[in-house]
Amino acid sequence: MKNLAQSNYSSALQTVKDLKAKYGTTWNAINPESAARMVTQNRFKTGLDIAKYTAAIMRKDMDEYDENASNYTQSLGSWHGFVAQQNIIAIKKHHKTTNKRYIYLSGWMVAALRSEFGPLPDQSMHEKTAVPALIKEIYDFLRQADAIELNDLFRRLEKGEDVQDQIDNFETHIVPIIADIDAGFGNEEATYLLTKKMIEAGACAIQIENQVSDAKQCGHQDGKVTVPHEDFIAKLNAIRYAFLELGVDDGIIVARTDSEGASLTQKLPVSTEPGDLASQYLAFVEAEEIAISDAKEDDVLLKRDGKLVRPVRLSNGLYKFKDGSNIDRVVLDCITSLQNGADLLWIETDTPNVKQIAQMVNRVKAVVPNAKLVYNNSPSFNWTLNFRNQVYEEMLAEGDNMTGYDRNNLMDAQYDDSELCHRADDKIRTFQADGSREAGIFHHLITLPTYHTTALHMNDLTEGYFGEEGMLAYVKGVQRQEIRKGVACVKHQRMAGSNLGDDHKTFFAGDKALKADGAKNTSSQFESKKNTTERELVLEK
Protein backbone atom coordinates (compact mmCIF):
# COMPACT_ATOMS: atom_id res chain seq x y z
CA MET A 1 0.00 0.00 0.00
CA LYS A 2 3.00 2.31 -0.31
CA ASN A 3 2.17 5.68 -1.91
CA LEU A 4 -1.40 4.57 -2.42
CA ALA A 5 -3.13 7.54 -0.83
CA GLN A 6 -0.91 10.07 -2.59
CA SER A 7 -1.33 8.45 -5.99
CA ASN A 8 -5.11 8.48 -5.51
CA TYR A 9 -4.91 12.13 -4.47
CA SER A 10 -2.82 13.12 -7.48
CA SER A 11 -5.06 11.25 -9.88
CA ALA A 12 -8.23 12.67 -8.36
CA LEU A 13 -6.77 16.17 -8.36
CA GLN A 14 -6.03 16.02 -12.06
CA THR A 15 -9.44 14.52 -12.82
CA VAL A 16 -11.28 17.34 -11.05
CA LYS A 17 -9.07 19.98 -12.70
CA ASP A 18 -9.93 18.49 -16.10
CA LEU A 19 -13.63 18.48 -15.23
CA LYS A 20 -13.48 22.11 -14.16
CA ALA A 21 -11.90 23.00 -17.47
CA LYS A 22 -14.59 21.06 -19.30
CA TYR A 23 -17.60 22.55 -17.50
CA GLY A 24 -16.26 26.07 -17.13
CA THR A 25 -17.63 28.70 -14.77
CA THR A 26 -20.49 26.55 -13.46
CA TRP A 27 -17.85 24.62 -11.50
CA ASN A 28 -16.07 27.67 -10.11
CA ALA A 29 -17.07 26.84 -6.54
CA ILE A 30 -15.50 23.37 -6.70
CA ASN A 31 -12.01 23.26 -5.22
CA PRO A 32 -9.95 20.47 -6.85
CA GLU A 33 -7.77 20.04 -3.75
CA SER A 34 -10.81 19.57 -1.51
CA ALA A 35 -12.44 17.12 -3.91
CA ALA A 36 -9.21 15.14 -4.29
CA ARG A 37 -8.88 15.00 -0.52
CA MET A 38 -12.40 13.55 -0.21
CA VAL A 39 -11.61 10.94 -2.87
CA THR A 40 -8.44 9.97 -1.01
CA GLN A 41 -10.35 9.62 2.24
CA ASN A 42 -12.85 7.23 0.64
CA ARG A 43 -10.76 4.80 -1.36
CA PHE A 44 -13.36 2.00 -1.45
CA LYS A 45 -16.48 3.05 -3.34
CA THR A 46 -18.44 -0.22 -3.11
CA GLY A 47 -18.57 -3.44 -1.13
CA LEU A 48 -17.29 -5.29 -4.20
CA ASP A 49 -14.18 -3.08 -4.17
CA ILE A 50 -13.65 -4.21 -0.58
CA ALA A 51 -14.31 -7.90 -1.29
CA LYS A 52 -11.80 -7.96 -4.16
CA TYR A 53 -9.16 -6.10 -2.14
CA THR A 54 -9.52 -8.24 0.99
CA ALA A 55 -9.71 -11.55 -0.92
CA ALA A 56 -6.27 -10.77 -2.33
CA ILE A 57 -5.02 -10.11 1.19
CA MET A 58 -6.31 -13.47 2.44
CA ARG A 59 -4.82 -15.34 -0.51
CA LYS A 60 -1.45 -13.73 0.15
CA ASP A 61 -1.69 -14.60 3.84
CA MET A 62 -2.60 -18.21 3.03
CA ASP A 63 0.46 -18.53 0.79
CA GLU A 64 2.69 -17.05 3.48
CA TYR A 65 1.28 -19.46 6.05
CA ASP A 66 2.07 -22.39 3.73
CA GLU A 67 5.66 -21.19 3.68
CA ASN A 68 5.90 -20.66 7.43
CA ALA A 69 3.30 -21.69 10.00
CA SER A 70 4.25 -18.82 12.29
CA ASN A 71 2.41 -16.57 9.79
CA TYR A 72 -1.01 -17.37 11.20
CA THR A 73 -3.85 -14.83 11.22
CA GLN A 74 -6.29 -13.70 13.92
CA SER A 75 -9.63 -12.02 14.42
CA LEU A 76 -12.20 -11.07 17.03
CA GLY A 77 -15.94 -11.35 16.51
CA SER A 78 -17.81 -8.04 16.30
CA TRP A 79 -21.56 -7.49 16.56
CA HIS A 80 -21.62 -3.80 15.60
CA GLY A 81 -19.71 -1.56 13.21
CA PHE A 82 -18.43 0.61 16.05
CA VAL A 83 -17.04 -2.43 17.88
CA ALA A 84 -15.20 -3.54 14.74
CA GLN A 85 -13.94 0.00 14.13
CA GLN A 86 -12.50 0.37 17.63
CA ASN A 87 -10.94 -3.07 17.31
CA ILE A 88 -9.03 -2.14 14.15
CA ILE A 89 -8.12 1.33 15.41
CA ALA A 90 -6.65 -0.30 18.53
CA ILE A 91 -4.76 -2.85 16.42
CA LYS A 92 -3.15 -0.04 14.41
CA LYS A 93 -2.31 1.88 17.59
CA HIS A 94 -0.80 -1.00 19.56
CA HIS A 95 0.69 -3.14 16.78
CA LYS A 96 1.38 -0.46 14.14
CA THR A 97 -0.17 -2.53 11.34
CA THR A 98 -3.33 -4.47 10.53
CA ASN A 99 -1.28 -7.14 8.76
CA LYS A 100 -2.79 -10.61 9.31
CA ARG A 101 -5.62 -9.23 11.45
CA TYR A 102 -9.19 -9.79 10.29
CA ILE A 103 -12.73 -9.39 11.63
CA TYR A 104 -15.05 -12.30 12.29
CA LEU A 105 -18.79 -11.97 11.80
CA SER A 106 -20.55 -14.50 14.02
CA GLY A 107 -24.01 -15.82 13.18
CA TRP A 108 -24.41 -16.49 16.90
CA MET A 109 -24.01 -12.79 17.69
CA VAL A 110 -26.26 -11.74 14.82
CA ALA A 111 -28.96 -13.99 16.24
CA ALA A 112 -28.40 -12.89 19.83
CA LEU A 113 -27.99 -9.15 19.23
CA ARG A 114 -29.17 -8.05 15.79
CA SER A 115 -32.49 -9.73 15.06
CA GLU A 116 -35.76 -7.81 14.91
CA PHE A 117 -37.33 -10.79 16.69
CA GLY A 118 -35.22 -9.94 19.72
CA PRO A 119 -32.46 -12.07 21.25
CA LEU A 120 -32.44 -15.53 19.67
CA PRO A 121 -30.42 -18.73 20.07
CA ASP A 122 -27.96 -19.72 17.34
CA GLN A 123 -30.47 -21.71 15.28
CA SER A 124 -30.78 -19.68 12.04
CA MET A 125 -34.04 -18.09 13.12
CA HIS A 126 -32.85 -14.52 12.53
CA GLU A 127 -33.46 -12.62 9.32
CA LYS A 128 -31.15 -13.47 6.43
CA THR A 129 -30.75 -9.79 5.63
CA ALA A 130 -29.30 -9.10 9.09
CA VAL A 131 -26.02 -10.73 8.04
CA PRO A 132 -25.19 -8.64 4.92
CA ALA A 133 -26.54 -5.58 6.75
CA LEU A 134 -23.97 -6.07 9.52
CA ILE A 135 -21.16 -6.61 6.98
CA LYS A 136 -22.07 -3.30 5.32
CA GLU A 137 -22.30 -1.58 8.70
CA ILE A 138 -18.85 -2.81 9.73
CA TYR A 139 -17.26 -1.55 6.53
CA ASP A 140 -19.09 1.78 6.80
CA PHE A 141 -17.45 2.26 10.20
CA LEU A 142 -14.04 1.13 8.95
CA ARG A 143 -14.21 3.48 5.98
CA GLN A 144 -15.15 6.28 8.37
CA ALA A 145 -12.06 5.44 10.44
CA ASP A 146 -9.99 5.93 7.28
CA ALA A 147 -11.66 9.25 6.53
CA ILE A 148 -11.25 10.57 10.09
CA GLU A 149 -7.57 9.64 10.37
CA LEU A 150 -6.70 10.98 6.91
CA ASN A 151 -8.71 14.14 7.57
CA ASP A 152 -6.64 14.73 10.70
CA LEU A 153 -3.47 14.25 8.67
CA PHE A 154 -4.59 16.67 5.97
CA ARG A 155 -5.46 19.24 8.66
CA ARG A 156 -1.98 18.87 10.12
CA LEU A 157 -0.45 19.16 6.64
CA GLU A 158 -2.32 22.41 6.05
CA LYS A 159 -0.89 23.76 9.31
CA GLY A 160 2.64 23.11 8.06
CA GLU A 161 3.39 19.82 9.83
CA ASP A 162 5.54 17.32 7.97
CA VAL A 163 3.05 14.45 7.69
CA GLN A 164 3.25 13.87 3.93
CA ASP A 165 4.93 10.51 4.42
CA GLN A 166 2.11 9.37 6.71
CA ILE A 167 -0.41 10.34 4.04
CA ASP A 168 1.57 8.70 1.25
CA ASN A 169 1.93 5.44 3.21
CA PHE A 170 -1.42 5.42 4.96
CA GLU A 171 -2.62 1.95 5.93
CA THR A 172 -6.35 1.48 5.57
CA HIS A 173 -8.57 0.13 8.35
CA ILE A 174 -10.24 -2.13 5.78
CA VAL A 175 -9.39 -5.75 6.62
CA PRO A 176 -10.91 -9.08 5.57
CA ILE A 177 -14.14 -10.29 7.15
CA ILE A 178 -14.82 -13.99 7.55
CA ALA A 179 -18.63 -14.03 7.50
CA ASP A 180 -20.83 -16.77 8.92
CA ILE A 181 -23.68 -17.87 6.63
CA ASP A 182 -24.70 -20.64 9.08
CA ALA A 183 -25.92 -23.65 7.08
CA GLY A 184 -26.93 -21.50 4.12
CA PHE A 185 -30.44 -20.49 5.20
CA GLY A 186 -32.28 -22.90 2.91
CA ASN A 187 -31.51 -24.82 -0.25
CA GLU A 188 -28.53 -24.15 -2.51
CA GLU A 189 -30.38 -21.39 -4.42
CA ALA A 190 -31.11 -19.61 -1.13
CA THR A 191 -27.43 -19.97 -0.22
CA TYR A 192 -26.39 -18.47 -3.56
CA LEU A 193 -28.73 -15.48 -3.22
CA LEU A 194 -27.64 -14.69 0.34
CA THR A 195 -23.97 -15.16 -0.56
CA LYS A 196 -24.31 -12.52 -3.28
CA LYS A 197 -25.72 -10.04 -0.79
CA MET A 198 -22.87 -10.77 1.62
CA ILE A 199 -20.22 -10.33 -1.10
CA GLU A 200 -21.84 -7.12 -2.35
CA ALA A 201 -21.62 -5.83 1.23
CA GLY A 202 -17.88 -6.57 1.27
CA ALA A 203 -17.35 -10.15 2.48
CA CYS A 204 -14.43 -11.94 0.83
CA ALA A 205 -14.70 -15.13 2.89
CA ILE A 206 -17.90 -17.10 3.49
CA GLN A 207 -18.05 -19.74 6.22
CA ILE A 208 -20.70 -22.43 5.84
CA GLU A 209 -21.44 -25.49 7.97
CA ASN A 210 -22.69 -28.97 7.04
CA GLN A 211 -25.76 -28.97 9.25
CA VAL A 212 -29.36 -29.17 8.07
CA SER A 213 -30.53 -25.60 7.47
CA ASP A 214 -33.89 -25.89 9.18
CA ALA A 215 -32.50 -27.81 12.15
CA LYS A 216 -29.29 -25.83 12.64
CA GLN A 217 -27.76 -25.68 16.14
CA CYS A 218 -24.83 -23.79 17.61
CA GLY A 219 -21.63 -25.80 17.17
CA HIS A 220 -21.31 -26.05 20.94
CA GLN A 221 -24.85 -27.32 21.55
CA ASP A 222 -26.34 -30.80 21.34
CA GLY A 223 -28.85 -31.95 18.73
CA LYS A 224 -26.78 -31.24 15.61
CA VAL A 225 -27.94 -32.91 12.39
CA THR A 226 -25.58 -33.10 9.41
CA VAL A 227 -26.32 -33.47 5.71
CA PRO A 228 -24.87 -35.90 3.15
CA HIS A 229 -21.79 -34.67 1.28
CA GLU A 230 -23.65 -34.18 -2.00
CA ASP A 231 -25.97 -31.64 -0.37
CA PHE A 232 -23.06 -29.73 1.15
CA ILE A 233 -21.06 -29.75 -2.09
CA ALA A 234 -24.04 -28.17 -3.87
CA LYS A 235 -23.86 -25.25 -1.42
CA LEU A 236 -20.09 -24.94 -1.85
CA ASN A 237 -20.75 -24.69 -5.59
CA ALA A 238 -23.46 -22.07 -5.00
CA ILE A 239 -21.01 -19.89 -3.06
CA ARG A 240 -18.30 -20.23 -5.71
CA TYR A 241 -20.73 -19.30 -8.47
CA ALA A 242 -21.77 -16.21 -6.49
CA PHE A 243 -18.14 -15.12 -6.14
CA LEU A 244 -17.50 -15.65 -9.85
CA GLU A 245 -20.66 -13.88 -10.96
CA LEU A 246 -19.69 -10.79 -8.98
CA GLY A 247 -16.09 -10.78 -10.21
CA VAL A 248 -14.45 -11.80 -6.92
CA ASP A 249 -12.43 -14.52 -8.61
CA ASP A 250 -10.34 -15.43 -5.57
CA GLY A 251 -13.08 -15.37 -2.92
CA ILE A 252 -12.55 -17.76 -0.02
CA ILE A 253 -14.87 -20.56 1.11
CA VAL A 254 -14.52 -21.86 4.67
CA ALA A 255 -16.13 -25.29 4.99
CA ARG A 256 -17.13 -26.13 8.55
CA THR A 257 -17.87 -29.65 9.75
CA ASP A 258 -19.95 -30.23 12.86
CA SER A 259 -19.56 -34.00 12.66
CA GLU A 260 -17.33 -34.16 15.74
CA GLY A 261 -20.33 -33.36 17.93
CA ALA A 262 -23.18 -34.48 15.63
CA SER A 263 -24.82 -37.87 16.06
CA LEU A 264 -27.73 -37.60 13.61
CA THR A 265 -28.49 -37.26 9.91
CA GLN A 266 -31.74 -36.19 8.33
CA LYS A 267 -31.62 -38.35 5.24
CA LEU A 268 -29.86 -41.25 3.60
CA PRO A 269 -28.08 -40.43 0.33
CA VAL A 270 -28.42 -42.60 -2.78
CA SER A 271 -25.37 -44.69 -3.61
CA THR A 272 -24.85 -45.48 -7.30
CA GLU A 273 -21.72 -47.59 -6.99
CA PRO A 274 -19.77 -49.27 -4.18
CA GLY A 275 -17.39 -46.94 -2.33
CA ASP A 276 -18.81 -43.66 -3.62
CA LEU A 277 -19.40 -40.73 -1.28
CA ALA A 278 -22.95 -41.77 -0.54
CA SER A 279 -21.76 -45.28 0.27
CA GLN A 280 -19.09 -43.95 2.64
CA TYR A 281 -21.68 -41.75 4.36
CA LEU A 282 -24.12 -44.65 4.70
CA ALA A 283 -21.39 -46.80 6.26
CA PHE A 284 -21.41 -44.46 9.29
CA VAL A 285 -25.13 -44.94 9.89
CA GLU A 286 -25.93 -47.31 12.74
CA ALA A 287 -27.95 -50.30 11.57
CA GLU A 288 -29.09 -53.68 12.88
CA GLU A 289 -29.07 -56.90 10.90
CA ILE A 290 -32.54 -58.34 10.34
CA ALA A 291 -34.28 -61.04 8.31
CA ILE A 292 -36.76 -59.87 5.70
CA SER A 293 -39.50 -61.58 7.66
CA ASP A 294 -38.70 -59.33 10.64
CA ALA A 295 -39.05 -56.12 8.64
CA LYS A 296 -41.97 -53.94 9.62
CA GLU A 297 -44.41 -52.39 7.19
CA ASP A 298 -42.78 -49.30 5.56
CA ASP A 299 -39.38 -50.05 7.09
CA VAL A 300 -36.29 -48.52 5.48
CA LEU A 301 -33.74 -51.24 4.78
CA LEU A 302 -30.19 -51.34 3.39
CA LYS A 303 -28.02 -54.07 1.98
CA ARG A 304 -24.61 -53.98 3.71
CA ASP A 305 -21.83 -56.52 3.10
CA GLY A 306 -24.35 -58.93 1.61
CA LYS A 307 -26.68 -58.66 4.60
CA LEU A 308 -29.99 -56.92 5.14
CA VAL A 309 -29.83 -54.19 7.78
CA ARG A 310 -32.28 -51.67 9.20
CA PRO A 311 -30.89 -48.17 9.96
CA VAL A 312 -31.60 -47.01 13.50
CA ARG A 313 -34.28 -44.35 13.10
CA LEU A 314 -35.58 -42.11 15.85
CA SER A 315 -39.25 -41.27 16.37
CA ASN A 316 -38.65 -37.87 14.72
CA GLY A 317 -37.46 -39.59 11.53
CA LEU A 318 -33.75 -38.80 11.99
CA TYR A 319 -31.12 -41.50 11.56
CA LYS A 320 -28.41 -42.24 14.10
CA PHE A 321 -24.69 -42.48 13.36
CA LYS A 322 -22.56 -45.22 14.87
CA ASP A 323 -21.03 -44.35 18.21
CA GLY A 324 -17.36 -43.50 17.85
CA SER A 325 -17.64 -42.64 14.14
CA ASN A 326 -17.43 -38.88 14.64
CA ILE A 327 -13.70 -38.38 14.03
CA ASP A 328 -13.73 -40.50 10.87
CA ARG A 329 -16.70 -38.46 9.66
CA VAL A 330 -14.83 -35.21 10.38
CA VAL A 331 -11.84 -36.36 8.33
CA LEU A 332 -14.01 -37.46 5.39
CA ASP A 333 -15.96 -34.20 5.53
CA CYS A 334 -12.77 -32.14 5.41
CA ILE A 335 -11.15 -34.07 2.59
CA THR A 336 -14.34 -34.02 0.55
CA SER A 337 -14.84 -30.26 1.04
CA LEU A 338 -11.27 -29.44 -0.01
CA GLN A 339 -11.58 -31.69 -3.05
CA ASN A 340 -14.78 -29.90 -4.02
CA GLY A 341 -13.91 -26.22 -3.92
CA ALA A 342 -13.42 -25.24 -0.27
CA ASP A 343 -10.29 -23.25 0.56
CA LEU A 344 -10.18 -23.51 4.33
CA LEU A 345 -11.61 -25.87 6.94
CA TRP A 346 -13.36 -25.30 10.25
CA ILE A 347 -13.63 -28.15 12.74
CA GLU A 348 -15.82 -27.62 15.79
CA THR A 349 -14.34 -29.46 18.77
CA ASP A 350 -15.54 -30.04 22.32
CA THR A 351 -12.30 -28.86 23.96
CA PRO A 352 -9.30 -26.74 22.87
CA ASN A 353 -6.64 -29.45 22.73
CA VAL A 354 -3.82 -28.99 20.21
CA LYS A 355 -2.94 -32.69 20.08
CA GLN A 356 -6.52 -33.75 19.40
CA ILE A 357 -6.95 -31.12 16.69
CA ALA A 358 -3.62 -32.14 15.12
CA GLN A 359 -4.65 -35.80 14.99
CA MET A 360 -7.62 -34.91 12.81
CA VAL A 361 -5.88 -32.32 10.65
CA ASN A 362 -2.86 -34.54 10.01
CA ARG A 363 -5.16 -37.25 8.65
CA VAL A 364 -6.61 -34.67 6.26
CA LYS A 365 -3.13 -33.46 5.30
CA ALA A 366 -2.15 -37.00 4.37
CA VAL A 367 -4.57 -36.60 1.45
CA VAL A 368 -4.54 -32.79 0.95
CA PRO A 369 -1.08 -31.59 2.10
CA ASN A 370 -1.87 -27.86 2.19
CA ALA A 371 -5.05 -28.26 4.25
CA LYS A 372 -5.52 -25.29 6.57
CA LEU A 373 -7.86 -24.70 9.45
CA VAL A 374 -9.90 -21.80 10.78
CA TYR A 375 -10.28 -22.50 14.49
CA ASN A 376 -12.79 -21.12 16.96
CA ASN A 377 -11.05 -20.18 20.23
CA SER A 378 -14.52 -20.36 21.68
CA PRO A 379 -15.82 -18.73 24.87
CA SER A 380 -17.96 -21.88 25.14
CA PHE A 381 -14.81 -23.63 26.37
CA ASN A 382 -13.83 -23.29 30.02
CA TRP A 383 -10.25 -22.49 29.06
CA THR A 384 -8.94 -22.38 32.62
CA LEU A 385 -10.38 -25.75 33.59
CA ASN A 386 -9.52 -27.42 30.28
CA PHE A 387 -5.87 -26.49 30.45
CA ARG A 388 -5.52 -27.17 34.16
CA ASN A 389 -6.88 -30.66 33.45
CA GLN A 390 -4.40 -31.10 30.59
CA VAL A 391 -1.48 -30.04 32.78
CA TYR A 392 -2.70 -32.20 35.67
CA GLU A 393 -2.49 -35.24 33.37
CA GLU A 394 0.97 -34.19 32.16
CA MET A 395 2.29 -33.66 35.69
CA LEU A 396 0.81 -36.96 36.80
CA ALA A 397 2.51 -38.75 33.89
CA GLU A 398 5.79 -37.03 34.81
CA GLY A 399 5.60 -38.53 38.30
CA ASP A 400 4.88 -35.28 40.19
CA ASN A 401 3.22 -35.48 43.58
CA MET A 402 -0.34 -34.33 42.90
CA THR A 403 -1.80 -34.86 46.37
CA GLY A 404 -1.92 -31.09 46.90
CA TYR A 405 -4.54 -30.71 44.14
CA ASP A 406 -8.21 -31.64 44.23
CA ARG A 407 -8.82 -32.94 40.70
CA ASN A 408 -12.52 -32.13 41.02
CA ASN A 409 -11.93 -28.53 42.05
CA LEU A 410 -9.08 -27.23 39.89
CA MET A 411 -10.91 -23.94 39.19
CA ASP A 412 -10.46 -22.96 42.85
CA ALA A 413 -8.59 -19.67 43.30
CA GLN A 414 -6.28 -21.35 45.82
CA TYR A 415 -4.42 -22.88 42.85
CA ASP A 416 -3.97 -19.59 40.96
CA ASP A 417 -0.34 -19.21 42.01
CA SER A 418 0.55 -22.90 41.80
CA GLU A 419 2.93 -24.58 39.36
CA LEU A 420 -0.04 -26.26 37.72
CA CYS A 421 -1.72 -22.88 37.14
CA HIS A 422 1.40 -21.26 35.73
CA ARG A 423 1.98 -24.15 33.34
CA ALA A 424 -1.67 -24.14 32.27
CA ASP A 425 -1.69 -20.37 31.70
CA ASP A 426 1.48 -20.64 29.65
CA LYS A 427 -0.17 -23.27 27.44
CA ILE A 428 -3.15 -20.96 26.96
CA ARG A 429 -0.80 -18.09 26.08
CA THR A 430 0.96 -20.15 23.39
CA PHE A 431 -2.14 -22.03 22.22
CA GLN A 432 -2.46 -20.09 18.97
CA ALA A 433 1.20 -20.37 18.02
CA ASP A 434 1.27 -24.05 19.03
CA GLY A 435 -1.94 -24.81 17.13
CA SER A 436 -0.70 -23.09 14.00
CA ARG A 437 2.62 -24.89 14.11
CA GLU A 438 1.35 -28.35 15.07
CA ALA A 439 -2.27 -28.52 13.95
CA GLY A 440 -2.47 -26.58 10.67
CA ILE A 441 -4.43 -23.66 12.10
CA PHE A 442 -4.14 -20.75 9.67
CA HIS A 443 -6.68 -18.50 11.36
CA HIS A 444 -7.51 -18.14 15.05
CA LEU A 445 -10.66 -16.33 16.04
CA ILE A 446 -12.79 -15.74 19.10
CA THR A 447 -16.43 -15.81 18.05
CA LEU A 448 -18.06 -13.89 20.89
CA PRO A 449 -15.46 -11.78 22.73
CA THR A 450 -17.25 -8.46 22.45
CA TYR A 451 -20.51 -10.03 23.68
CA HIS A 452 -18.70 -10.98 26.87
CA THR A 453 -16.61 -7.80 27.23
CA THR A 454 -19.75 -5.67 26.95
CA ALA A 455 -21.45 -7.69 29.67
CA LEU A 456 -18.35 -7.65 31.90
CA HIS A 457 -17.76 -3.90 31.57
CA MET A 458 -21.42 -3.10 32.23
CA ASN A 459 -21.30 -5.34 35.31
CA ASP A 460 -18.27 -3.49 36.68
CA LEU A 461 -19.55 0.02 35.88
CA THR A 462 -23.02 -0.72 37.23
CA GLU A 463 -21.68 -2.05 40.50
CA GLY A 464 -19.91 1.21 41.29
CA TYR A 465 -22.08 3.80 39.58
CA PHE A 466 -25.28 2.70 41.29
CA GLY A 467 -23.39 2.18 44.54
CA GLU A 468 -21.30 4.40 46.78
CA GLU A 469 -18.75 5.35 44.09
CA GLY A 470 -21.34 7.12 41.98
CA MET A 471 -19.78 9.18 39.19
CA LEU A 472 -16.30 8.21 40.32
CA ALA A 473 -16.95 4.68 39.03
CA TYR A 474 -17.29 6.06 35.50
CA VAL A 475 -14.39 8.49 35.79
CA LYS A 476 -11.94 5.98 37.29
CA GLY A 477 -13.05 2.90 35.40
CA VAL A 478 -13.78 4.42 32.00
CA GLN A 479 -12.85 8.01 31.20
CA ARG A 480 -9.56 8.20 33.08
CA GLN A 481 -8.49 4.92 31.45
CA GLU A 482 -9.49 6.20 28.00
CA ILE A 483 -7.42 9.36 28.48
CA ARG A 484 -4.34 7.63 29.82
CA LYS A 485 -4.45 4.80 27.27
CA GLY A 486 -5.16 7.08 24.34
CA VAL A 487 -8.42 5.41 23.36
CA ALA A 488 -9.67 7.13 20.21
CA CYS A 489 -13.31 7.47 21.22
CA VAL A 490 -12.58 9.49 24.37
CA LYS A 491 -13.20 12.38 21.97
CA HIS A 492 -16.46 10.84 20.87
CA GLN A 493 -17.57 13.85 18.80
CA ARG A 494 -14.51 13.47 16.58
CA MET A 495 -15.00 9.71 16.40
CA ALA A 496 -18.57 10.20 15.22
CA GLY A 497 -17.29 12.40 12.39
CA SER A 498 -17.80 15.92 13.75
CA ASN A 499 -14.41 17.26 12.60
CA LEU A 500 -14.77 15.49 9.26
CA GLY A 501 -18.21 17.03 8.80
CA ASP A 502 -16.91 20.49 9.66
CA ASP A 503 -14.30 20.27 6.92
CA HIS A 504 -16.88 19.03 4.43
CA LYS A 505 -19.19 21.92 5.30
CA THR A 506 -16.29 24.28 4.74
CA PHE A 507 -15.72 22.72 1.29
CA PHE A 508 -19.40 23.12 0.49
CA ALA A 509 -20.21 26.52 2.03
CA GLY A 510 -16.87 28.21 2.62
CA ASP A 511 -16.73 30.83 5.38
CA LYS A 512 -20.51 30.64 5.80
CA ALA A 513 -20.34 27.09 7.14
CA LEU A 514 -21.82 26.57 10.60
CA LYS A 515 -19.26 24.36 12.32
CA ALA A 516 -19.37 22.37 15.53
CA ASP A 517 -15.68 22.72 16.37
CA GLY A 518 -15.43 26.04 18.20
CA ALA A 519 -14.54 27.57 21.53
CA LYS A 520 -17.60 26.06 23.20
CA ASN A 521 -16.91 22.54 22.00
CA THR A 522 -16.18 20.64 25.23
CA SER A 523 -14.10 18.09 23.32
CA SER A 524 -11.22 20.56 23.44
CA GLN A 525 -10.80 19.54 27.07
CA PHE A 526 -9.39 16.25 25.81
CA GLU A 527 -6.63 17.77 23.68
CA SER A 528 -3.23 16.54 24.83
CA LYS A 529 -1.47 19.13 27.01
CA LYS A 530 1.60 18.37 29.06
CA ASN A 531 0.52 20.41 32.08
CA THR A 532 -3.11 19.37 32.14
CA THR A 533 -4.05 17.70 35.41
CA GLU A 534 -6.94 15.38 35.99
CA ARG A 535 -8.67 18.03 38.10
CA GLU A 536 -8.82 20.24 35.02
CA LEU A 537 -10.66 17.59 33.02
CA VAL A 538 -14.41 17.88 33.28
CA LEU A 539 -16.99 15.58 31.84
CA GLU A 540 -18.31 16.04 28.35
CA LYS A 541 -22.00 16.75 28.29
What does this structure look like?
It contains 19 helices and 14 strands. The protein has 541 residues and is an alpha/beta fold. It has three domains: 1-42, no CATH class; 46-268 and 322-390 and 432-457, Phosphoenolpyruvate-binding domains (TIM Barrel, Alpha-Beta Barrel), CATH 3.20.20; 467-508, no CATH class. The protein has an eight-stranded parallel beta barrel, surrounded by eight helices. A three-stranded mixed sheet has the order 5-7-11, with no helix packed on it. α8 (188-201) links the parallel β3 (177-180) and β4. α8 packs parallel to α9 (229-245), α11 crosses α12 (354-365) and α13 (383-397) packs across α14 (419-429). The longest helix has 29 residues, at 130-158.
Assembly level: single chain
How many domains is the backbone divided into?
A: 3
**Strand proportion:** 5-15%
Secondary structure: helix percent: 40-55%
Count of β-strands: 14
* Spatial strand sequence of the major β-sheet: 1-2-3-4-6-12-13-14
**Span from first to last CA?**
40 Å
Mean pLDDT: 90
From the 3D structure, determine the CATH topology of the largest domain.
Answer: TIM Barrel
Q: By CATH's scheme, which homologous superfamily of the largest domain applies?
A: Phosphoenolpyruvate-binding domains
The CATH class of the largest domain is identified as: Alpha Beta
Largest sheet: 8 strands, parallel, barrel
- Spans of at least 5 consecutive residues with low confidence: 216-222, 530-541
**CATH architecture verdict of the largest domain:** Alpha-Beta Barrel
Kindly name the structural category: alpha/beta
Number of helices: 19
